[in-house]
Amino acid sequence: MNVRLFFVDRDETSVYAGSMKILVCLKQVGNDGEINRFDLHALEEALSFKEQIDPQASQSVAVDVVTVGPPEWTKIIRRAFGLGADRGCHIVTEDSGYVSSFVTATRLAAVAEKRQYDLILTGIMSEDMLAGQTGPMLAKILGLPCATGVIKTNLPTHDNMIEVERELENGFRDRLAIRLPALLTIQAGINTPRYPRLSNMLVAGQKEITILAEADLFHEPIEARDICIGLENPQKSRSGQILEGSLSEKAEQLFAILKEKGLL
Amino acid sequence: MKQIFVIAEIFAGQIRPVTWELITAAHTITASLPSKQPTPAIHIMVPADNPVPLAEEIAKRTGINVIGLQIPELKVYTSEIYISCLEQLMRANPQISDSYQNVFLSKNKKTTCKALIKTMNPSHIIIAHTAQGQDFAFGLALGLNAAAISGVNGIRSDVEGLIYSRPAFNNNKNMLIRPTPKRPVVLTLMPGIFKPETYKEKKTGQIDIRKVSFAPSDCQKERVQYLEIVKKTCDNRALKKTKVIISAGRGIKDKKNLKFVHKFAQCFSSATVGSSRPLVDMGWLGYQHQVGVTGATVAPKLYIACGISGSSQHLAGIKEAEFVISINKNPEAPIFRHSDICISADVVEFIETFLQKRGDTSGFHNIR
After folding, report:
1. Mean of the pLDDT values across residues A93-114?
2. Which residues make Cβ contacts (< 8 Å) with residue B125, sequence separation at least 6?
3. Residues B274, B280: Cα–Cα separation, whole Å
4. Which of A171, B140, B151, B311 sees the fewest Cβ atoms within 10 Å?
5. What is the pLDDT of residue A170?
6. Rounded distance, CA B106 to CA B62, Å?
7. Residue A187's closest chain B neighbor by CA?
8. Do domains B3-220 and B237-367 have the same CATH topology?
9. Is the peptide bond before B40 cis (omega within 30 degrees of 0)?
């Protein structure tokens, strides 16, 4: 499977001119239908764009969500509907265990490429894998410009530009203007994700979800470029003396340690 | 022969110290390779609009050969320029490589300049796991059909080859990753793990300056415009100077429980309240309280982490603390591996008990 298949020449005139298509990529973390925290910030950003650009809800802005994962992940698409997402797509996979980000990005690209989105948002990373690869790889497959760790955005302008700030170390930020279509990976702290709304939740159950199998998108499975061969406990950097006993015994011990060190 | 390329991290025209850690990792790779395998040569790449002084500084310090990428468009970093130029250069495509001009611009006669490598054939590309590194590494990996491994914190090998460890599951575990063979590997390296080497030899590395131009296709033109660098205005000098930091994390569960953390801090003659990132993101505490790579890097005599699980970002920010105590309900919390004293308890209950023991009940019951 050669990923270059997905490189597309874009029709530059099709992008944002009062109407806009946004795609948010979601991942489930844990086993309880919970959406990755960073992806929730990405979804919030998309929904707030929609509300600002299209306050009358005239359907000129569409927020679609997509996830790649096992069958039970359909739940997070429903959750996203409850928050206000318009359409959802679930690429159902049969992988067990570790999935290389390259594989996920390639699968997402197959869906994203079909609808020619103006803006694609992902979380900066997933809370479980902490890799931060899927967004930038998806951008590269689709041939889109990409900014990672976005902590602030302005509304896209009518000349198809979006101004963003990327978070760097020590309180610094890079301010960039990026031409749409583009992909942004969203950092926590950019917004406060909303709670589901009753009106949305009522329709969430009835909304149709596009379910795709990997075989619908690819002739052969995508080959991973890395495999996980095991897990281990990280190394200690300090002694880690554990205080034993009841709560009050622990408090007494801490008090004694701090006293002895002259810290109290 | 294959090559290991270390991409120096350049920020505001300066070499960032994490670059020296990347070189240590390159040496770890060559030392870990099975002996029957040919050892790849290490080269340091310096992308800049004027890479000569930077390349000279690195070659002189490390004795390693340096390839300076002279990219006129690279006044400031953008992922577009980095990915495009590095990809052009490193694709194992002799036709492209031959067309590069080798120019040497330095007046320093002691260094020689010749094409160090005819054809680039990377086995490994080592990049810092920083805001900049993570921004271009994975797009570059894809462009080079390479494997990509993020946040590498360990490199070793077994009979089948190299194994890389990286944090996962909220920093609770390390995953052991093996790239599939016959591809280059792009690694982003967790800062602060691989110690910079000291170079005793007085050898200076060779320098090879290559002019690469960022030539976007028409549809790519000016897709990313760099506007400016901004500094979030905030005064975190208190955190940087203080002897004792009492930091709060998500384990306190409710914003109103912050008062226990403040009360705890008042037990010390002069303590400052710190915070993990999520609390600042939620607006419970101001950014001036944030400890970690994206907030303040601190070095107090005593650091008490109250309900902080310990993300890599946070742990990197407290590495220089003299004594670390953590209180966490979860006995598996990663922060316990990086603490001198571990207290497994609900943080609010523990602080309440501590305050009572200390006899500090003044107004305590009123708070509740």
Report:
1. 93
2. B4, B5, B7, B90, B137, B140, B141, B144, B146, B184, B185, B186, B187
3. 10
4. A171
5. 85
6. 18
7. B281
8. yes
9. no
A19-44 CB burial, b ≥16 within 10 A, e <16: ebbbbbbbbbbeeeeebbbbbbbbbb
Element (H, E) at B343: strand B341-344
* CA distances from residue A136 to A112, A217, B342 in whole angstroms, order as listed: 14, 21, 38
pLDDT of residue A154: 96
Which token pair is A70?
């096992």
pTM score, two decimals? Answer: 0.90
Q: Which of B219, B223, B281 sits opposite A188 (nearest CB)?
A: B281
Residue A1 has pLDDT above 60, yes or no: no
DSSP letter at B197 equals P
Q: Cα angle at B338 between B337 and B343, to 5 degrees?
A: 70
Q: pLDDT (tens digit, 9 = 90+) per residue, B299-355? A: 999 999 999 999 999 999 999 999 999 999 999 999 999 999 999 999 999 999 999
Q: Contacts by B180-184 with C-beta closer than 8 Å and gap 24+?
A: B180/A223, B180/A224, B180/A225, B180/A226, B180/A227, B180/B147, B183/A225, B183/B145, B183/B146, B183/B147, B184/B90, B184/B122, B184/B123, B184/B124, B184/B125, B184/B144, B184/B145, B184/B146, B184/B147
Distances (CA, A) of B302 to A78, B258, B267, B294: 46, 19, 13, 21
Sign of CA dihedral A7, A8, A9, A13: negative
List residues bridging with B62 in a β-sheet.
Answer: none
| d(CA B83, nearest CA chain A) in Å | 10
Please give the distance of CA A157 from its chain centroid, rounded to a whole number: 23
pLDDT digits (tens, 9 = 90+) for A228-243: 999 999 989 999 999 9
What is the DSSP code (8-state) at residue B36?
T
CA distance B100 to B117: 12
Q: Domain B237-367 is of which CATH architecture? A: 3-Layer(aba) Sandwich (3.40)
| Domain ranges for chain B | 3-220, 237-367
- The answer to whether B356 and B350 are in contact (CB under 8 A) is no
ipTM value of the model? Answer: 0.91
B3-220 has which CATH code? 3.40.50.620
Domain A3-217: CATH class, spelled out = alpha beta
- Say which of A12, A230, A240 has its CB closest to residue B336: A240
| Tens digits of residue pLDDT in A20-60 | 999 999 999 988 899 999 999 999 999 999 999 988 888 88
User: Quick one: pLDDT at residue B114?
Assistant: 57
B30: closest CA among B155, B152, B119? B155
User: Which one of B125, B142, B230, B260 makes the best mutation probe of the A interface by having the most chain A beta carbons within 10 Å?
Assistant: B142
**Chain A 83-102, residues with CB within 8 Å of chain B CB atoms:** 98, 101-102
Q: Hey, which residues 233-252 in chain A have their CB within 8 Å of chain B?
A: 233-243, 247-248, 250-252
- Token look-up 């590095």 returns B86
From the number of C-beta atoms within 10 Å of its C-beta (0-12, 13-18, 19+), residue B216 rates as middle
SS3 B159: coil
Check residue B358 and give its pLDDT. Answer: 83
Q: What is the band of A11 on the pLDDT scale with cuts at 50, 70, 90?
A: very low
Positions in chain B whose pLDDT score sits under 50: 93-113, 361-368
pLDDT at A17 over 80: no
The rounded percent of chain A whose pLDDT value lies above 70 is 93
Q: CA separation (Å) from B17 to B9, B191, B195?
A: 8, 10, 11
